[in-house]
Amino acid sequence: MADLAHDPCRLILVGVGGQGTLTLAQMIMEVARRSGYQALQSEIHGMSQRGGTVYAYLSLSRDAILTPAAMEASSHLLIALEPLEALRYLPFLRSDALLFVSREPVRTLPDYPDEGKLLAALEAVPGVRLVDTVALAERLRFKQAGGMALLGLAARCLPFGDEVWRRVIAERFGPGTPVTEKNLQAFAHGLG
User: Fold this and answer.
1) Cα(70)–Cα(9) distance, rounded to whole angstroms?
2) Chunked in runs of 10, what are the mean pLDDT values of the chain (192 residues)?
3) Are 133 and 146 in contact (CB under 8 A)?
4) CB 105 within 8 A of CB 115
5) Which pTM value belongs to this model?
6) What is the number of other CB atoms lying within 10 angstroms of the CB of residue 117?
7) Which residues pair with 10 in a beta bridge?
8) Would residue 67 be called left, alpha or beta, if left means φ above 0 and alpha means ψ between -120 and 50 degrees?
9) Could you count the other beta carbons within 10 Å of the beta carbon of residue 39?
10) How far is the C-alpha of 56 from the C-alpha of 70, rounded, in Å?
């Protein structure tokens, strides 16, 4: 898998309300800071309680960062917890960007697109990896497994050590708790 050694490295995380998009963004920020990087985040979560769009832009660098804002064709990585939301952010990605996208639609719109056409459109994007987060959640018996697996995939490409990721996840959910163990299992699945 390609790595994201770009500096600055720009990431976009997208989903809908209640999927944990901002939690994943906060964990990436914390891992970056503990690894000696400067990290800035900008987020929008309007209407998130009603299933609306939630996104975060992140910029990570060894040097000072002036803005986390994503400009057109500037981002290196997209983590999408929802496939339609992934499509919305394609214009912000570089041509060599990596995309880790859940195959699970969250139908918050009455005219949600045809799922087959939606996934076919995503499969045509270079650098995309669609993840069957429903099957993973069933296998691990953990509804939130998909987001953590996508985070694990991203961790394979980012320049931070595995142990830092695991420490941040454990601290986020409480060391030694059952939910932490499930999150670590899902993360390990993505990490490979």
Assistant:
1) 11
2) 73 92 96 96 71 90 84 93 96 96 92 95 97 95 95 95 96 94 96 91
3) yes
4) yes
5) 0.93
6) 9
7) 59
8) beta
9) 22
10) 10
